[in-house]
């Protein structure tokens, strides 16, 4: 009789792992424990050194699953990103996603030389592996936390995490080549060719992602009447198209991650009515992708091998969170006039997730000497980041007063926006004369224009400027103009 154990046993094991991880994540999230960390830990406990005893060392399969999962997660995040968020978040996000990753990798490399005794090519490789924020973690934590962050912070974090993977991949591949050259001395680095590859990744990824996005959005809009039958079918159509764009772009040596994110942004905005009904099903696909990715990456880890370098790896993680990331964020965001609290929060939410572990597989597959130490260090960095940063995200946002209240919460709404509502088109002369406030140099300018000039950045709802004994708060924006303003006067 034909035995089907080869099918039943792996399927039962996989289903059990997913079920236990999801159930544990639901329970743990109630006490503020990061949902995704549960998946990673369940995979580790099921591995060779854990109670599960599953021996799994297929790095090629893990690499394949990790890339596909990241493409799905970036696609889902792009579908939910509205064009309006780029008004305030695009320029700072682009700088963080490029220069910020380079700076973070460089600063972290210094800690790698100091704490892990790595030579400088390996240290730079380690910095590149852990240098970018993780889209999967940022998207899921911001969504699951239920926080309504102010637009500038939310847009900057979302766009940065969606666009910084290409830079991290490029740096990782570059430093792998540099490490191999320095260690065997058989070749020399062609830096001009390296820069050309960098440009190719961004140009090809951006063009293919945008072009495919407009094409699929047009197709969905033309088929909208036929797509009303089910959100699951529509989500499957979107996911297959997104993965196809990722694969095609990667094959043409572009950045598949960038293409998947831009594809999602274009489709989500140009085909908004058709996409909206598929978002709940896409959310399920994204969670499934994250579950599979974190479970498999957890299975790869051998805790006994981590113990020897645990203390130095923890030092790398803390240096990255407390020095490298904050310093990189400060240098990149300095020209954009973010507040000190916004600086601090964006620096702290430099969350590391599956991306560093996936990138750490690159040097293992390339046969880099010392790659195992980099993989173990990346795992420690991810666990530490999820545990410390992920679990304190909501608390810090409230502490920094970066959360906007809902209109139904009248007490907090009045606390933030004040008791008086003013039209943004009235002149400063009228406002100052009525409320006995000091006149600015141009008293005939409108209240909205004065606020924008004082802020020296694109205004968002919740922005505040002091004027004499009063506080002026942006209450509503239409297009790029401030339409309504709140006025807060001191309580006597």
From TrEMBL:
Localization: Cell membrane
Domain Transporter-associated: 413-491
A Pfam family it matches: Na_H_Exchanger
Transmembrane segment boundaries: 6-28, 35-55, 61-81, 93-116, 122-142, 163-182, 202-220, 232-249, 255-272, 284-301, 313-333, 345-368, 374-397
Any one of the GO BP annotations: proton transmembrane transport
Keyword Membrane in record: yes
Entry keyword set: Antiport, Cell membrane, Ion transport, Membrane, Transmembrane, Transmembrane helix, Transport
Protein topology in the membrane: Multi-pass membrane protein
InterPro entries in the record: Cation/H_exchanger_TM, FAD-bd_PCMH-like_sf, FAD-bd_PCMH_sub2, Na+/solute_symporter_sf, Transptr-assoc_dom
This protein's GO CC annotations: plasma membrane
Main location: membrane
GO molecular function, a single term: flavin adenine dinucleotide binding
Name assigned to this protein: Cell volume regulation protein A
Species annotation: Nitrosomonas halophila
């Amino acid at each position: 009789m034909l035995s089907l154990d080869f099918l039943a046993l792996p399927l039962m094991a996989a289903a059990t792992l997913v079920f236990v991880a999801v159930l544990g994540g639901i329970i743990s999230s109630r006490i503020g424990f990061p949902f995704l960390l549960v998946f990673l830990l369940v995979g580790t406990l099921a591995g060779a050194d854990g109670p599960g005893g599953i021996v799994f060392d297929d790095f090629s399969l893990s690499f394949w699953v990790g890339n596909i999962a990241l493409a799905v997660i970036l696609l889902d995040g792009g579908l939910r990103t509205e064009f309006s968020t780029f008004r305030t978040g695009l320029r700072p996000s682009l700088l963080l996603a490029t220069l910020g990753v380079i700076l973070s990798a460089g600063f972290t490399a210094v800690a790698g030389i100091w704490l892990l005794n790595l030579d400088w090519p390996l240290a730079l490789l380690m910095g590149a592996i852990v240098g970018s924020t993780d889209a999967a973690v940022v998207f899921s934590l911001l969504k699951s936390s239920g926080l309504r962050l102010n637009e500038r912070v939310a847009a900057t974090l979302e766009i940065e995490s969606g666009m910084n993977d290409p830079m991290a991949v490029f740096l990782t591949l570059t430093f792998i080549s540099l490490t191999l050259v320095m260690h065997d001395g058989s070749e020399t680095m062609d830096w001009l060719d390296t820069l050309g590859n960098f440009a190719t990744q961004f140009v090809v990824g951006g063009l293919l992602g945008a072009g495919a996005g407009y094409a699929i959005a047009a197709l969905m809009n033309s088929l909208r009447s036929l797509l009303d039958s089910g959100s699951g079918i529509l989500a499957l159509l979107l996911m297959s198209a997104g993965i196809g764009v990722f694969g095609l772009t990667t094959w043409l040596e572009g950045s598949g991650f960038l293409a998947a994110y831009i594809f999602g942004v274009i489709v989500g905005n140009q085909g908004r009515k058709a996409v909206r009904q598929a978002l709940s099903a896409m959310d399920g696909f994204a969670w499934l992708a994250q579950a599979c990715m974190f479970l498999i990456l957890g299975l790869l880890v051998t805790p006994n091998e981590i113990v020897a370098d645990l203390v130095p790896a923890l030092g790398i993680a803390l240096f990255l969170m407390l020095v490298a990331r904050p310093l990189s964020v400060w240098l990149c965001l300095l020209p954009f006039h973010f507040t000190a609290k916004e600086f601090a929060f964006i620096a702290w939410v430099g969350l590391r997730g599956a991306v560093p572990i996936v990138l750490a597989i690159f040097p293992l597959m390339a046969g880099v000497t010392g790659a195992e130490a980099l993989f173990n260090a990346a795992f420690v960095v991810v666990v530490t980041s999820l545990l410390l940063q992920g679990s304190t995200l909501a608390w810090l946002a409230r502490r920094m007063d970066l959360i906007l209240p809902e209109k139904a919460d009248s007490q907090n709404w009045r606390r933030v926006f004040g008791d008086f509502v003013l039209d943004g088109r009235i002149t400063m002369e009228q406002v100052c004369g009525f409320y006995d406030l000091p006149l600015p140099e141009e008293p005939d300018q409108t209240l909205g224009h004065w606020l924008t000039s004082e802020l020296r950045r694109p205004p968002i709802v919740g922005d505040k400027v002091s004027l004499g004994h009063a506080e002026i708060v942006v209450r509503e924006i239409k297009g790029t103009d401030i339409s309504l303003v709140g006025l807060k006067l001191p309580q006597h």
